[in-house]
Each structure stands twice: as C-alpha cells, then as structure tokens.
Amino acid sequence: MKNNGLSHEKPIIIWFRKDLRLDDNHALHAAAQTGRDIIPVYIREPSRLGTGPLGAAQAWWLHHSLTGLEKALKGLGSRLILRSGKPDSVLSELIAETGASTVHWNRRYDPDGIAVDSPLKDTLASAGTTVKSFAGQLLHEPTRLKTGSGTPYRVYTPFWRALEASGEPDQPLDRPDALVSPTKWPGSDTLASWALLPAAPDWAKTFSDVWTPGEEAALERLEAFVEDCLSGYKVRRDLPAADGTSRLSPHLAMGEISPARIWHATRNLRDTPTEDVVTFRKELVWRDFSYHLLFHNPDLPRENLNRKYDAFAWSGTGDAFKHWTKGQTGYPIVDAGMRQLWRHGTMHNRVRMIAASFLIKDLLIDWRRGEAWFRDTLVDADPASNAASWQWVAGSGADASPFFRIFNPVLQGEKFDPDGVYVKTFVPELRDLPAKFVHRPFEAPPSILDAAGVTLGETYPKPLVDHAKARDRALAAYSKIKDAG
Ligand code: FAD
What CATH architecture is 307-484? Predict the structure, then answer.
C-alpha cells in the first residue's frame, strides 16, 4: 500500500531474523497497527554474529524462504530490503537514509543473537531510536518458567508440567492485510548476489523432492499433518519409513511458522485421540525446553553440561568420522540415516538418535563433531535443539539418556524398520536382501548375499566396528569418569 500522505510519523523498520513469516509475527503486527510507513529488512550478518553464517543446507533453505517472504510482502504492497553487514552499521545507515525513528524485532534466545541484540538495543536507544522487541519464537519466554526454588529447569518432565499448568500460549495473531510503504525505498542487495544456493555441484537438487521452504508451505504442511497424520502420531512417530511426523522443524527453525500457531491448531480436535495430541505437544515443548537450557547455559553447544565428561577419552579416528558422514559404517540403519541427510538435508528423529549414539559410543568420537556436522547439513539445524539433543545422547546433557544406554543399531533397525523399507530407500545396494538380514548383512550366508548381489567390503562396507566389542570399549572409557564430580 502506497503512503497516501496520511502517515506523517516517521517509518518503522521491521528487522526480520529467524521469523520469516507474516502470520503471528508480533513485531510486524504491532508495526502494522500504527498505520505508519514500514520498511521490512533482512540483514545477512557476518560470521559468528546473530543468525550468520548458517550451515550450507540451511543457506539453501534461507534463499527460498526469503524469496517467499519477498513475494508475500509484495502481496501486501510492500517490499523486503536486503542488506549485508554488522546489524549496528546496517541499521544506522538505514535509519539515516529513511528517517526511521523506530525498529521492531522479535527476540532471539541463542547466545550469538543475544550478544548482538542486547548492546544494539542500547546503541540505538542512545542515538534516539525507539527499539521494541517482541516474543513469539517460543511457546513461552525462557525466563518465564522456574522451578519451585526459583532456578531454571534441568529436567524435562517438571518443565512440561509447569508449561501445561501455566495455561495456553497466547492466541496467534493474524497476518496484516496491508502495509504502508515509504514514499522512497532504500536500496537493497539482490538475493542472487548473496550466493546462498550451491552452484557446482548442486548437491541440494534433491532437497526439493521433499521440501518446499516458505511460510505458505509451512501453513499447508501444518493443516495436512493435523488432518492426516496426527491421529496415530504416538506410534507412527518412531517409524522412519512412515510419513508419521509433522516435518515442521525446518519451518520452525527459520520462523516460517510460530509454535503458538501449531499449538492452537491442535486444540479441540474431536476426532483425534488425546494421547496423540499430547505426545505431539510434548515434542513441540522439547523445542522450548532446549531453548530454556540454551538460554540459561549459553555454552551448551560447546561445553559438556555435566563437566565430568570433560575428562572422557575420545579416541575415535578421523577416518571413522569420515565413514560415518558418508553413510559407510556397515550398519544399515546408521548408513540410511546419514545418506538421508545428504539427499534430503534431514534425518528421522529415531535415526538421529541411533546415528548419534553410534558416533559417540561405538566410534568414541566427541559429540561436538557430530553436532557441527548436523549443523552444516540439516535444513532444520537449530542452535538449541541440536546442541541439547547431542548432549542428551552423549549423556552429558540435562536430563540426558544415561551413557550406559547404548543403542544397538541392529536391534533398533529391526524394531523400528522391521521390513527394511527405510534402509532400502537410502541404501539401495541392500534392496534385494530379505528383511531378516537387511539390518545385519554381515550375518547373511554367502548364498543370500550372492542372490542379493551384495559383496561385503565391495558393494557395501563391512562393519566399521563390532558393536558388542565397541560397547564394552565405550563402557570401559565411561567407567573412568563415572564417579567423577
Ligand atoms: P515432530 O515429531 O513432528 O515434532 C514436532 C516439533 O517438535 C518438531 O518440528 C520440533 O520443532 C520439535 N521437536 C521434536 N522432537 C524434538 C527434540 N527431540 N528436541 C527438540 N525439539 C523437538 N531438531 C531440530 O529442530 N533441529 C536440530 O538441529 C535437531 N538436531 C537433533 C540432533 C540429534 C542428535 C537428535 C537426536 C535430535 C535432533 N533434533 C533437532 C530433534 C528432532 O530430531 C527433530 O526436531 C525432528 O526430527 C523434526 O521432525 P518433525 O518436525 O517431523 O518432528
């Protein structure tokens, strides 16, 4: 909508970050309500600042997400200004160019984001700019819930109970119908000049087989999930071959949909069993819990929460790490997961746990290497959920799975992918093995391997380690730190 001369007040800059949506966007909604000129901006922040740089898979997502946001803003008669640089310089320049007097943003809760936003708020305020920050990225602000003794939570179940008892999250806000544009727009980078997409080779070309980034797709996905998949979620969520989960995580990671919108979409569903709704909400609340942990333990992605793990003897080799990243460990469920990650930038949650356990406990490789690999390769890479989950598997985190609970990749595969459908999708060289051996090809008789065209060590790797021996080795390493601190 063009400025019709009625909006005499100075413009408001909306700084989009990991909230690339119009729906339930508190910062945008409040700005739109004022009737003032609005200048939507996305800043590509330099390395180690705020949201930048993203991993390679998420950079692909960002390109498409920004394209979608730009289109949606055009639909409201507005635009999206793209700028690169340190947010304090970029915003000061924009304020000088446009005469804006106010900046709105939705709060971020990761330490890199906070390290940018807190001083920036003061800098802008002392230069006479009004800064308003808003909630909405989580169901509840990470400072809101506290234990009876006033400390942050470290155990999930009481956190969940407190969240449930604290009432429904706020009703999501509708998207604005129109935004008032300034009479003159400031200059913008082109998205193409940011080169977010991989070029040669285009390793992300298979991502679009399963993903459509952007707010519109996120809302459609939510509706389809609630209608078709939420019933039965409790059981099907653990089956990697089933379309049993919401697949909303990359949309949430980029803020294309709000958790409140998701929560409220699961209310008053008469035909959906309550246990499915509650199980799903509990997963959504793991995201809030992860942010609660990160907010109160900013070193979560870098340091063991339980410091006794600092003395753990990680003895795994770089070669073993490479085999793991390439899905060449000889354990089909692990390899299928790691190859799903290459092909689609994602991995089913159950398989993430198995693959992470294998790296940490079978290969004795520091969880931080796995965390960094996932950060670069997942389209849903999230500073809180990724770090909290890796520490959960390692046993070093809050409310973590105990170290001695070591996943057996064969039994896990047989339990959750009994027919080997998931394995065969991503490890096609095992396609013709009977289900009985698909998770343990190394135990198949030669005649069966021959008939399936499998030659271990040639068409498919022999196991990198013997799981039973690796388990003993891991427990021996753990026994050295078990009684410390
Ligand atoms: P659904 O089952 O539909 O769950 C709904 C939403 O709940 C998800 O979109 C997600 O936002 C949240 N959620 C579900 N499980 C978890 C969990 N365990 N922790 C935190 N939030 C959860 N999730 C990420 O979003 N980003 C990550 O970087 C990430 N890294 C992980 C690393 C490891 C080693 C493990 C074991 C898990 C990780 N997860 C991560 C959690 C989980 O695997 C994904 O959130 C889930 O697979 C996303 O699929 P979905 O959207 O279909 O989930």
Answer: Orthogonal Bundle (1.10)
